[in-house]
Amino acid sequence: MPFCRQIALFIACVATPGTLCAQDTTAVRAPDTVAVHSDSAEGLRLFLDCHVGGCDFDYLRTEITWVNYVRDRTAAQVHVIATSIATGGGGSEVTLTFSGEREFSGVDDEFRYNTARGATGDELRQQLAHALKLGLAHYAMRTRFARDLAVNFIGVVGAHAQQAPRDPWNFWVFGAGLSGYLNGESQSSSRGGSGSFSASRTTADWKFRANLYGSTDRSSYQLDDTTNLIARSHSYYGSALLVRSVTGHLSLGGTVSASAST
């Protein structure tokens, strides 16, 4: 029986408080998008340093069964670091950095994918597992495991890549409000109203927000048969914010505001 060379993937989890990164080497067979079938009990030695949502090692062990999860980083042949940054749409951009160790020194790779805003825990761990499978195949094809690799295409041949639904508002969000009041007595009366308007737009590159507010009030008092006192007041306020994303971790912008009242 041929002895398969081993690859180690470094995987450490800190996504969930209290989650331990201890990993055993027991393999449980389960269907994989990228599957490896081998007569050897040894698999790719993996260690994952995980700082993103979806770091469920119990799930990963059942989804990626053709690897050995190691506790010791020095035993790893592939070191994977998973990090994420927030996107303008409310989701995250996840980056998996693959670094080859030992006989795979210098064989590095990187894979990125986006998670949707409000994605469930199950969706996050499925995306992470899928990305890991793709990255591990890059190393497995350099071993004797390559002969047992099976790649399944689950899309439609010739179909265009699925695109995100088009937003008819082009990411703009508007808000408006009106209010008013009216009351009176035999010798006094008052009325007034206010209105507000807001507009905002957030993308991966830009963030814009503007707010406008105004109010007016009028009160009338009958002091005597010949004297009527009228009091009027008005107030206005406006503000705007504009921010530009410079890098994945740095943005620059400014804000301006103005108000007036009588």
Please state roughly what percent of the residues sit in beta strands, choosing from under 5%, 5-15%, 15-25%, 25-35%, 35-45% or over 45%. over 45%
Structural class, by secondary structure, is mainly beta
N→C terminal distance: 91 Å
In terms of quaternary structure, the protein is single chain
Number of strands: 13
Tell me the series of helices and strands, N- to C-terminal.
Answer: EEEHEEEEHEEEEEE
What's the main sheet like?
6 strands, mixed
What does this structure look like?
With 262 residues, the protein is mainly beta. Helix content is 10%, strand content 46%. It contains two helices and 13 strands. The strands form three sheets. Strands 1, 3, 4, 5, 6 and 7 form a six-stranded mixed beta sheet that branches. The longest helix is centred in the middle third of the chain and has 20 residues.
In short:
This protein is mainly beta. The chain has helices at residues 57-63, 121-140; strands at 9-13, 34-36, 44-50, 67-69, 78-86, 92-100, 108-115, 149-151, 172-184, 188-202, 206-222, 228-245, 251-261. The strands form three sheets. Strands 1, 3, 4, 5, 6 and 7 form a six-stranded mixed sheet that branches. A five-stranded antiparallel sheet has the order 9-10-11-12-13, with no helix packed on it.
